[in-house]
Amino acid sequence: MKEIEVRPLSRAAFAPFGEVIEMEGADNFPINAGRCIRFHDLATIETAGEHARPMISLFRAEPCRLPLTLDMVERHPLGSQAFIPLSDRPFLVIVAGETENGPAEPLAFQTRPGQGINIARNVWHGVLTPLDARSDFAVVDRGGDGVNLEVHVYDKPFLVR
Amino acid sequence: MKEIEVRPLSRAAFAPFGEVIEMEGADNFPINAGRCIRFHDLATIETAGEHARPMISLFRAEPCRLPLTLDMVERHPLGSQAFIPLSDRPFLVIVAGETENGPAEPLAFQTRPGQGINIARNVWHGVLTPLDARSDFAVVDRGGDGVNLEVHVYDKPFLVR
């Protein structure tokens, strides 16, 4: 199996796919008489299509172990999807660019504590993949009418390690 | 000083002011082949006015100690504001109803682990008030043009305990 090496998540590396939601390096300013710092406007929420609206949900996901076999990615043609971890545990972020023949080879990133992500609309990505233990996330994505899911199964699976 | 007693946060008690964002009692269903549970659509995001859009930010807030003196509340006429704690530490949620003469006497709620809140548009509330230690929050509120802040100073302060 072709191997995909997990690399650390960073704003620069993730920029083609969306945003890293983290305090480090973010525009920020004090509010509430200096008792709070606001790290401001860290993600572009996209909600397209009929009756579209942003939604807040909570996800509780079972952990995966590396190495893992990846044979599919999905994307949401009508909206972005933000995942903000409610713990300090890492999760894997698997994304893929777009080619004429569908998704490119996947890239895999591992978060460090304090990093969430916003996957831009129509970007191919793997499902939510916490490491170490069952983990909870705040999720901001799109509600509305229309088909907002496309799935792609790769001809040959990848080994993410 | 008039005393306001802190009570536990619950969906029922908070319903007039917005939503409690928590897994307990929430509509939920499995996704990702059963590896994740989605607690679905837990808050009503409101964004009114010119060029309005929802925003994701992170807040880092200094802690308060009880009892605390409360002399002001604020509200956002153009948008809701959701606070989801990124730790298990409690925070205070201070809100007030509306009377003919401005905000009513405040109510104070204390969260338990796993509880966030969404304060509805135009609801009077206190500033973000973590207890115990400096705490981080994911915040979903409104960006756009127009004046989205009103502040009210009470004639006499309250003692929240």
From TrEMBL, chains A, B:
Pathway listed: Nitrogen metabolism; (S)-allantoin degradation
Cofactor(s) recorded in Swiss-Prot or TrEMBL: Ni(2+)
KW Lyase (keyword) present: yes
Enzyme's top EC category: lyase
Keyword check for Hydrolase: yes
UniProt KW keywords: Hydrolase, Lyase, Purine metabolism
GO MF, one example: ureidoglycolate hydrolase activity
GO biological process, one term: purine nucleobase catabolic process
EC number(s) recorded for this UniProt protein: 4.3.2.3
Enzymatic reactions: (S)-ureidoglycolate = urea + glyoxylate
Highest taxon of source: Bacteria
InterPro entries per the UniProt record, alphabetical: RmlC_Cupin_sf, UAH_cupin, Ureidogly_lyase, Ureidogly_lyase_bac, Ureidoglycolate_lyase_dom_sf
PANTHER family the UniProt entry points to: UREIDOGLYCOLATE HYDROLASE, UREIDOGLYCOLATE LYASE
Protein purpose: Catalyzes the catabolism of the allantoin degradation intermediate (S)-ureidoglycolate, generating urea and glyoxylate. Involved in the utilization of allantoin as nitrogen source.
Family (UniProt): Belongs to the ureidoglycolate lyase family.
Subunit relationships: Homodimer.
Protein name (Swiss-Prot/TrEMBL): Ureidoglycolate lyase
Native source species: Rhizobium grahamii CCGE 502
